[in-house]
């Protein structure tokens, strides 16, 4: 089966979500998956508004970062207003800030958010819910 050049050379990462672990033992379970060979830790931050669930936020990530200084924290923000989370997530130790495109109302708001994430020295990820359409303002 032919593959495009992009797919052929795309690096793949293993990033297990910590939501599947015993959160009362978050550090040890995170260490177990790191020792098991995962590349990143996937941290789902949920505000109870954008998605019905509520998880954890910057204080938990900051605590985990203190014990795992070299780990790559792939933070997936399932939140309504990701722009207010950029600085706190950076200060907590997020490596990647992934937000949902559905939270952006215009090209200007998207560009502002992307610039903010870059300013705070995090990598950027963009997520989309399975049944969502990509907004027309995305080039």
UniProtKB/TrEMBL annotation:
<dbReference type="Pfam" id="PF00834">
    <property type="entry name" value="Ribul_P_3_epim"/>
</dbReference>
<dbReference type="InterPro" id="IPR013785">
    <property type="entry name" value="Aldolase_TIM"/>
</dbReference>
<keyword id="KW-0464">Manganese</keyword>
<keyword id="KW-0479">Metal-binding</keyword>
<dbReference type="GO" id="GO:0004750">
    <property type="term" value="F:D-ribulose-phosphate 3-epimerase activity"/>
</dbReference>
<dbReference type="GO" id="GO:0006091">
    <property type="term" value="P:generation of precursor metabolites and energy"/>
</dbReference>
<dbReference type="InterPro" id="IPR011060">
    <property type="entry name" value="RibuloseP-bd_barrel"/>
</dbReference>
<keyword id="KW-0413">Isomerase</keyword>
<keyword id="KW-0119">Carbohydrate metabolism</keyword>
<dbReference type="GO" id="GO:0046496">
    <property type="term" value="P:nicotinamide nucleotide metabolic process"/>
</dbReference>
<dbReference type="GO" id="GO:0005975">
    <property type="term" value="P:carbohydrate metabolic process"/>
</dbReference>
<keyword id="KW-0862">Zinc</keyword>
<dbReference type="GO" id="GO:0006163">
    <property type="term" value="P:purine nucleotide metabolic process"/>
</dbReference>
<comment type="function">
    <text>Catalyzes the reversible epimerization of D-ribulose 5-phosphate to D-xylulose 5-phosphate.</text>
</comment>
<dbReference type="GO" id="GO:0046872">
    <property type="term" value="F:metal ion binding"/>
</dbReference>
<dbReference type="GO" id="GO:1901135">
    <property type="term" value="P:carbohydrate derivative metabolic process"/>
</dbReference>
<dbReference type="InterPro" id="IPR000056">
    <property type="entry name" value="Ribul_P_3_epim-like"/>
</dbReference>
<comment type="similarity">
    <text>Belongs to the ribulose-phosphate 3-epimerase family.</text>
</comment>
<keyword id="KW-0408">Iron</keyword>
<protein>
    <recommendedName>
        <fullName>ribulose-phosphate 3-epimerase</fullName>
        <ecNumber>5.1.3.1</ecNumber>
    </recommendedName>
</protein>
<comment type="subunit">
    <text>Homodimer.</text>
</comment>
